[in-house]
Design a protein that fits this description.
The protein has 347 residues and is of the alpha+beta class. The protein has two helices and 15 strands. It comes from Archangium violaceum Cb vi76.
């Protein structure tokens, strides 16, 4: 029994561990680069954690590269952070991060890599890389002879939000890539080899570029997260609920002039197409939609004829009824006189 009680706290942790999908964070919220495994830089000032601009949280990474920066005596100039994950073939992950290119970022026909998954080997292009050429963002998979599966114009002074869904495999029938950019799918799930045979990949983030580029290059990164579920790196968008609009109140009806009741009249229409028209008339229609069924075929004269479609006919009916009543009273008044004359004649 005592042994079971000792194991109880660990048993409570099992569901949490089993459902946790965030594998690793490299979002710089520690205020430094301690979440990462290694730096390849000529100076700590080239990989600087800053508070502005930040895409999320309090901190981001500012990467600076100047011509001649070559901390590992290899081709090109670079300053990069490394995360040595070395995922095995068959593993599948979602990677989220954001990158901003400031106004000063140099335009060049030469390559400038800002995020890459490099292979264990020492030479050759990485099997998966994000880079810029002539102000165009590109994603290439498969190294120097690989396939560019995404291109987009480079927009400076705004954050690019990336979510990369990858299954790592050297088998083109097993591996795949799917890419979201700024919340939209820009590369649907595409089968492709994402590793070189017999080699594992690791992440490099920063800036690595052709050595012939002379101007200083600066790029910002933020919010890097690795997870096993999409919802942990790209939450569903919040849909704003529109505020209810006040409904117009109907105008009070005037009591019938002749004192009759409206109980036997048909119920009013729930919607009046004419009343729903905009207050400003549409040019050429007088405020009415052409072909409106509420007016077609009724024989109602236009409003410019002097009598309205609702007031003209009742007035004529009322005048006729008044005339009939007057004639009736005159007939009733003359009837007794006519009877007296007839009676006197008979007498």
């Amino acid at each position: 029994m005592k042994r079971l009680l000792k194991l109880a706290p660990f048993a409570l942790l099992l569901p949490t561990l089993a459902t946790a999908s965030t594998v690793w964070r490299g979002d710089f919220e520690t205020g430094n680069t301690s979440q990462w495994d290694r730096e390849q830089t000529v100076s700590s000032s080239r990989l600087l954690v800053v508070s502005s601009p930040a895409r999320e949280g309090r901190y981001a990474l500012k990467t600076t590269v100047r011509q001649g920066d070559n901390p590992i005596n290899a081709s090109g100039n670079r300053n990069e952070l490394l995360y040595l994950d070395r995922e095995k073939a068959g593993s599948e992950f979602f990677y989220k991060w954001s990158t901003l290119f400031p106004k000063s970022f140099p335009r060049s026909p030469k390559w400038q890599i800002f995020t890459q998954w490099h292979h264990d080997g020492n030479g050759g292009s990485p099997p998966l890389e994000f880079y810029v050429v002539d102000d165009q963002l590109r994603l290439r998979v498969g190294g120097a002879n690989g396939k560019i599966i995404w291109r987009a114009p480079l927009q400076r002074e705004q954050w690019n939000d990336f979510v990369l869904h990858v299954k790592w495999s050297p088998d083109p029938k097993a591996g795949f890539v799917e890419l979201y950019h700024n919340g939209k799918v820009v590369v649907p799930l595409t089968k492709i080899a994402t590793q070189y045979s017999g080699q594992l990949n690791y992440l490099k983030l920063g800036l690595y570029r052709d050595a012939s580029i002379a101007p200083e290059g600066v790029v910002f990164h933020d919010g890097f997260v690795q997870a096993t579920r999409l919802e942990d790196v790209m939450p569903a968008p919040v849909v704003a609920t529109p505020e209810p609009q006040p409904q117009p109140q109907p105008a009070p009806e005037s009591p019938p002039v002749d004192g009759s009741s409206d109980e036997g009249d048909p119920p009013p229409e729930e919607s009046d197409p004419i009343a729903q028209q905009p207050s400003d008339p549409v040019p050429g229609t007088g405020g009415l939609v052409p072909g409106d069924a509420t007016l077609a075929g009724t024989g109602v004269p236009p409003a410019s004829c002097g009598a309205s479609s609702t007031g003209g006919t009742p007035l004529l009916v009322a005048a006729g009824m008044a005339l009939a009543a007057l004639l009736g009273r005159r007939k009733a008044a003359t009837a007794p006189a006519h009877a007296r004359r007839t009676h006197s004649q008979r007498r």
